[in-house]
Design brief:
Length: about 375
C-alpha cells in the first residue's frame, strides 16, 4: 500500500490501480524487461478506455501518433529524447512512460548546471574507499547504472542544462550499452530492456546545446503546445483536478468559465494576437505555458481555501495572473496593461470583475 502521507507520489503509486488492471488484462506479447505490451502502455498514456472495470484516465492529451513513436522507440535499442517548449508535458510523459514500462519512474538524473559526470556514471563512498580501497561495496551507483543492471528505464531531465562533458558521458553508454569501471577492472553490460528517456527545453537551446554525436544516439520526439483552445482546456481541467486532489486546498474546483478565461489570456499573450486574429498584442517575456496555467489555478484555489470561502474570486485569479505575466517589471507590465485596456476591458460584463481586479494590481 502506497504511503499517502507524502507530498507527491510517483506515477506508479498514484495510478497503481490502472496499471494493475492493464497488466491483468494483457493479451499481447511483452518486450523483455517490460511489465506490459506497447499497446497497453499506449492505453495507459492516452486513456479513455475501461479495463477490468477500471477507468483508464488520460495522462497525455495530444497527438496520439507522437506517443506511439515514443513507445516504439523504447522497444528498440535507441534512447528517447522529448523536446518542447516549457510546459508541454515532457517530464510528465517521461514519468508515465517509465511507470508503465517498468513500474518505476524514480531512476532520475535532474540536469542542472551543477550536475556532474559521477551522477551519470557512478561515484564512491569515500570513507569506505579509504578504509577498504576500490570495491563494489564502496561504489555509489547512479540511476543510469542501476537501470543498466536491472534492464529498466532511466530518465535524464533537462539534459541541455548539463555541461557538455556531462552530456558526453552518455555517448558511450548509449552507443556500447556498457559502462566501464576501470577502478574495478569491470565492464558492466546493460541488461535487455535498458533505455534512457531524456527531456530538453527549447528555451534552453543555447545553454549547453547537445552535440551532434549525442543527438544521433536518440530518437527525437517534439512535443508541441496544445493545438487548440479545447484541447488546452481539457488538459488544464484534468490536471488541476488531479493536482488539487493530493493537496489540502479546502477549495472548490474552478468553474469552466474561469478556466476558459485563464487559458484564453495565456494563449493570446503567448501567440501575440487575440484568438480571432483581429488584434496584435505585445508578448511578455514569460512562457505562459499550459503547466503555468495549471499552477496558477491551483494557487488561486489555495488563496480561496485559506483566506476565502473556498470559491475562487476574480481577486484570487488576478493575483496569479499578475505573477505569471509580469516577470520583467517594465516590458511585461506594459504588455499586460495594454492587454487589460485594449482587450479584456472591451469584452463586456462577463470579464469586468476580472479586469478591475487585474487593473488594481497592475497600477
Amino acid at each position: 500500500m502506497a504511503d499517502q502521507n507524502v507530498q507527491r507520489l510517483p506515477a506508479e503509486a498514484l495510478f497503481q490501480t490502472e496499471l494493475d488492471a492493464l497488466m491483468a488484462a494483457e493479451a499481447d506479447s511483452i518486450p523483455t524487461g517490460w511489465r506490459m505490451s506497447p499497446r497497453s502502455v499506449l492505453a495507459y498514456i492516452t486513456g479513455g478506455v475501461k479495463v477490468k472495470g477500471v477507468d483508464i484516465t488520460p495522462k497525455y492529451m495530444g497527438n496520439r501518433r507522437l506517443v506511439e513513436i515514443a513507445i516504439a522507440t523504447l522497444v528498440t535499442d535507441r534512447a528517447l529524447l522529448l523536446i518542447g517548449e516549457p510546459g508541454t508535458a515532457k517530464s510528465w510523459l517521461s514519468e508515465h512512460l517509465a511507470a508503465a514500462v517498468n513500474g518505476d519512474s524514480t531512476k532520475v538524473v535532474q540536469g542542472t548546471a551543477g550536475t556532474t559526470e559521477e551522477q551519470i556514471r557512478y561515484s564512491w563512498n569515500y570513507a569506505m574507499l579509504i578504509a577498504r580501497g576500490p570495491c563494489p561495496e564502496a561504489m555509489v551507483k547512479s540511476p543510469i547504472y542501476r537501470a543498466m543492471e536491472t534492464g529498466s528505464v532511466a530518465r535524464v531531465e533537462e539534459i541541455s542544462r548539463c555541461a557538455s562533458e556531462v552530456q558526453d558521458a552518455l555517448i558511450s553508454i548509449l552507443s556500447e550499452k556498457r559502462l566501464s569501471v576501470p577502478e574495478l577492472g569491470l565492464e558492466i553490460p546493460a541488461a535487455k530492456g535498458f533505455s534512457v528517456i531524456a527531456t530538453a527545453n527549447t528555451r534552453d537551446k543555447g545553454v549547453n546545446d547537445m552535440s551532434a554525436a549525442l543527438k544521433r544516439r536518440f530518437n527525437i520526439v517534439v512535443l508541441p503546445t496544445p493545438a487548440d483552445l479545447e484541447t488546452e482546456l481539457d488538459i488544464v481541467r484534468t490536471r488541476v483536478a488531479q493536482l488539487s486532489a493530493g493537496l489540502d486546498l479546502n477549495a472548490r474546483q474552478p468553474d469552466g468559465d474561469m478556466v476558459e478565461k485563464v487559458v484564453t489570456i495565456f494563449r493570446e499573450l503567448r501567440g501575440g494576437a487575440t484568438l480571432d486574429g483581429k488584434q496584435k498584442l505585445k508578448t511578455p517575456g514569460g512562457v505562459l505555458s499550459t503547466a503555468e496555467a495549471i499552477s496558477l489555478l491551483a494557487n488561486s484555489m489555495a488563496l480561496a481555501g485559506s483566506f476565502g470561502d473556498g470559491g475562487i474570486t476574480p481577486e484570487d485569479l488576478a493575483a496569479g495572473l499578475q505573477g505569471a505575466v509580469v516577470k520583467d517589471e517594465e516590458k511585461d507590465k506594459l504588455a499586460w496593461k495594454e492587454y487589460l485596456e485594449h482587450v479584456m476591458k472591451k469584452r463586456g460584463s462577463a470579464w469586468l470583475p476580472l479586469y478591475r481586479a487585474c487593473r488594481e494590481l497592475n497600477e
